[in-house]
Each structure stands twice: as structure tokens, then as C-alpha cells.
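Researcher: We're teaching a course module on how sequence relates to structure. For the next exercise, students receive a sequence and then see the predicted structure as C-alpha cells, so they can try to spot secondary structure elements on their own. Here is the exercise chain.
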Amino acid sequence: MIAVTFALPAESSGFLHLVHNKTRIDRNGITTIAGEIDDRTIEVFHTGVGKKVCRQRIARFLQDRQLDCLISAGFAGALNDQLDVGDLLLAQNFSTAELGEARSLLVNLPIHVANLLTVPSMIDSDEERNKIARATGAAAVDMETEFIARACAEHGVPLLSLRAISDTPRQPFPAPAHVLFNIERQRTSVMRLVLYLCKHPTRLPGLIRFASQIARARETLTEALVAVATAL
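Model: And here is the predicted structure for the students to work with:
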């Protein structure tokens, strides 16, 4: 059994569209989606965004479960200009599954092997990105992988951390982080976003651009996950 985790359905929708014979499973207070990719059994699970919800959900997910591998997938924000939107980051500092074979499967995709850093909140300023990059040497950030890696280590589950870049210093978020996502409610507040755009109408083109960035990242991530999941 291979498990694939995403923070949110916005990240998993492309991959789930390709999963056949899907079945919803409710276990230990969480919901997963099981199915098949090229005759391989796959189970997809959403961890939520951030430390609190991710730690709770991944602990429940791994309870009394035998897995051949867990792929921690989703989006990440680049900390430098060497990464572009849609590029893939194979996190060498979190991955415990064999990296060489995984990388060879992605040879035709824009793949980078580098360190990923898990941060407590979305980074929406170039200054902060640069500061974190200099201090840590990481190439990109997310908000979940560290906690997934800890849980996998505790349960002896091999981990492959694979992220697609959704934003960069050159192509940043189109609005403040608290406008784009409410971490307490685990969703975007449409009303807050609309009010923000009413006050800052010049940000609308940036929001449209960001939606295109998300779509590009999701497409590349989906292609990579299919290649890896069917070959593991």
C-alpha cells in the first residue's frame, strides 16, 4: 500500500481524477480515499495546513497501519530564483525512501533535489524569503512535511517528500497570507478576499495570475506522482 498525502484538495484534485475505483474510508476519525493507479493500490489523505491539524491527522492516519511508502506531496514556496513555478522539489532532508530511483523516474520533469523547510506560517514577503534562505540553506518552504516526517519515522514508514513550486520571489502571493487562507478554519474566507479586492482592485490581475500558477504546479505534481506511484 502506498499513501499519498496532501494538505488540501486544491493540491490533490488532479491526482485524484486519475485514481480509479475510488472508495471513501472513514477510520480513526479521519477520511481517506482509496483506489488504484495502474493496478497499484493507493490511499490519499489530506493532512490540513499547519502544525496543529497536521500532527493530529497524521497520527490518526498512521495508527495501526502498514505502508510500503508514504509520499508527502503538495505545493511549496520557493526561497530563491533558481526555482520556477511548476518546478518539482525532491526534499533530500526529509526523504528516507531511495532518492536515486525516484529522481530517475522524473528525468523529463523540472526536478530539483534540495532541502525543504517547514515553517509556521505562509511567507508573503521577499525580505522574509531571503532571510530564511540565508539562515537555513533551504530552497523552499511548506507547512507540513516536518511533522509528517516525524510521524513516519516513529512508525518506520519510508517517506518520499515531493513538492511542486507554487510561488517564488519573482511570482509571489497576490495578497497578504491572512487574506488568502484562514489557518484556523482551514479554508479561504471568500468574504475577506472580496473585501480585500474591493479595497485593492489593482490586485485582481495578480490573483488571476496566481490561480494560473496553482494550476501549473498541480499539473506538474500530478504527472510526477503518477510516475513515482506506479513504479514504486
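Model: If you want an answer key for the exercise: The chain has one domain: 2-171+218-231. Residues 204-231 form the longest helix (28 residues).
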